Amino acid sequence: MTEHQSSGVARIEGDATGISVAGWSRHPGWGVYAALLLTSAALLTLEISLTRFFSHTIWYHFAYLTISVALLGFGATGSIVAAFPAMLARVGQRFLVATLVLAAVVTVAGLSFLAQFPLEIENITNKPLEFSLSLLVYYIVVAAPFLLAGFTVSVPFAAYPGMMGRLYFWDLVGAALGCAAVVAFIELLGVPGLVFAAAGLMLLSAAALAASGGNRGGGAALAAIGVAMVVLAGPAGQRLPIFVTSSKSLPSQMELVARDKPFDQRTDVFSKWTAINRVDAFGWDYPSPLAPLVAVLIVAYSFGLARVFGLARVFDAALHLELAPRIAIAVIAQMPIGLTLGMFMPLGIACVARSQPRLVPWAWGVNGVGSVAGTTLAVLLAMAVGFRTVSLIAAALYLIGTALLVRAARTPHA
Question: Contact at 8 Å (CB) between 358 and 17?
Fold first, then answer.
C-alpha cells in the first residue's frame, strides 16, 4: 500500500480518497472517535433541550422549527469543508479544537440571550419587520453552535470516507446517549442545566482532540473546565432567569398572583421541567376554573395523536400495564421503522464514498438541506392535507430513494 500526495489530498491505494487534515494520520486516532461521540451527544442534547425551552418560552410551533435550523447549521459544515479543504490541510486539528471551544461559549451565551428576550408572537401582525429581524437573530443564535461543533462530525467523514461505517457508528452512539440524557436528567438538571452540560461536553470533545494531537496540557485544562461545567450545570441552570412571551397567559397569571404576595415569599409555588413539558403551579389557594378544560384538552390531544399513527388499539390494550412495559411497547412499535428508514443516510454516503469520495462533504450538506426542507414542508403539508397524506408522500419519497439507491449500488465504480 503506497501513498500519494496531490492538491492537499492524501490518496492511499486501496482506501477511499479523503481530504487531508493537519495533525491526523492515515487512520483515525482515539481522539477522533471520542470527539465524534462526545460532540454528537452534546448536539443532540442541545437540540432536544432547545425544543423544550422554546415550547415553554414561546410556543411549541417554534420548538419543531428548532430541529430544521439546527440541521441547517449542522449540514452547512459539509459544504464549507468541501469548498475549503486546503484550510484543514493547513490548520486541521487546531481548527476543530477552536471551533468546539467557541461552540461551547456560543451555546452558553446564546441560552442567556434566548432566556432574556423571548419572541413576541403578536408582532407577526403588529410589527412584522421587527418580528422578522428578531426571528432571524433567533435562527442565527440557534444555528451557530451546530455550525461550529458540526465540523467535528463532518471533517472525520470527509477525511476517512473508507471508514464511514465505524465513524457513523460512534456518531449514532453519541446521538443516542444525548437523546437518552435529556429524558434521564431533565428533571434533575432542568433544560438550562442540560444546555450548560452540552457546552461542557463540547469542551470535553475539544480536550480529547487536543490530547490526542499531542497538546496534553491544553487537553487537561479543557477537560477540567468541561467536567466542572457538567457537574455545575444543574445549579447554574437554576440561577438563570427565564422570561416567557407576553402572548402566553403565564406572565399575566403570575403578575395577578404576585399582587397578593410576592413570589419569593410564597409557599404555594412549584416549577419543574419534565421530558413532556414544563410545569408551573402557583397560587393554588385561588384555583383557575380553566383547569378542568385544560385536562380534557390534554387527554383529547393524546388520544388523537395515537389515532393518527394507527397505534390506538395497541396502546388501548396496554393501558392497564405499568409504566415500564408501556414504554417498552412504544419503543418496540416504532423501532423497526426508525431502524429501517435510518439506514438510507449511511448507505447513501457509502455509495458516494466508493464512487466519488470528494463529494462526501457535499452529500452531508445535501442531507442537511433536505432535512430542513422536509421538516418545514411536513409541518405546512400536515396543516393543509393532514398527517395521513403526509405519511403517504413520505412513503412515496422513500420508494423513489430506494430505487435510486439500488441503481447507484449497481453502477460500476471508477
Answer: yes
